[in-house]
């Protein structure tokens, strides 16, 4: 991955965007995409929508959600400790001992997540699962009044773990789910800006996917596409304690994950397979026999229905502060969909 593209990816990953508070990351995304497209806009929900060739009759939508999981202050006790609820879902045990970045109207406030020391726990306490009510955020305040001068109930926060390159091909971050998808949409739009298109392409960095694929619902209604592809991370099965019989086989570095299932239009999938073979792009196939819980769900059932595809980016350790993805997988997703859309005819019948 070239340096400019990788620098943008790192900036996007490091910029906080818990669901409902995506604007800082959305600004980074819009700045990167806006210089290459005909139109770029936002809506009252927070979705960022970039458009190429807007006058074409056939509309194709690309969607990757830019929100990440996080926490929100629910209570400040008399001693100045903060209690939180989850924005999205994660294992509370992973939060113990983490640093956090609290997003306030006046700027970021640092904090740490504390818990009773193991030395003070009774044997039965050590065996219990960590619960949100048994951990707290410490911002160093001497009491409630000092804490309230710094933060407020309702302020969101993210775990303070920046991305890091593990190898030339592997990168770890708290937010690859799904800034990897939003990044992919941005780079496809930039690539397509230099190609002659027969169709209109709308690239969307959607919001609030972690709260129930909300941004994809509202943006798909506005765009009103004929077809679309959602990009999200998917569970890799190439690490210990995974069951390939349940997950299927999916490895980092082996290419895009084209998913098959009720949410995905088989004609669109067939065209993706043909494009991959034509351009010698390796890919992997997994099945999703039920609703996927991704933006593809919302796009598919928009208005009178939309022919929808779902391309996954293999991801280890989903919904943890140390998710891992392959840069070459992302590059191959960009190449696959860029070629697919550049070759897309002015009209294509995806009806079954």
From TrEMBL:
Gene: ysdC
GO biological process, one term: proteolysis
Active site per database record: 209
Protein name per Swiss-Prot or TrEMBL: Aminopeptidase YsdC
Top class in the EC scheme: hydrolase
Cofactor dependence: a divalent metal cation
Family label: Belongs to the peptidase M42 family.
Gene3D superfamilies: Peptidase M42, domain 2, Zn peptidases
Record-linked InterPro entries: Peptidase_M42 (IPR008007), Peptidase_M42_aminopept (IPR051464), Peptidase_M42_dom2 (IPR023367)
Residues given in the record as Zn(2+) 2 binding sites: 177, 210, 319
Taxonomic superkingdom: Bacteria
Keywords for the protein's UniProt record, in alphabetical order: Aminopeptidase, Hydrolase, Metal-binding, Protease
Cross-referenced Pfam families: Peptidase_M42
EC code: 3.4.11.-
Binding site for Zn(2+) 1: 65, 177, 232
Record's cofactor remark: Binds 2 divalent metal cations per subunit.
Gene Ontology MF terms: aminopeptidase activity; metal ion binding
